[in-house]
Design a protein that fits this description.
Length: about 60
């Protein structure tokens, strides 16, 4: 088990703040994916991206 530094603020995984914080932190990621024309679906910190083939999927990660 790891310990947080003294005075650190921690969020419990699966807690009520987790989805809210994920949405706040991942908003820029969503905007970048939309700018690149990617098709994706994200709920809180879970993200699915849909591509036509494995080749396109690999290219998606390299962009």
């Amino acid at each position: 088990m790891t310990t947080a530094p003294r005075g650190a603020v921690r969020n419990i995984v699966g807690g009520v703040l987790s989805p809210l914080l994920a949405n706040l932190l991942l908003d820029d990621w969503d905007q970048e994916l939309e700018r690149r024309g990617h098709t994706f679906c994200r709920y809180a910190d879970d993200c699915n991206s849909y591509v036509e083939s494995e080749v396109r999927g690999n290219a998606w990660w390299l962009r």
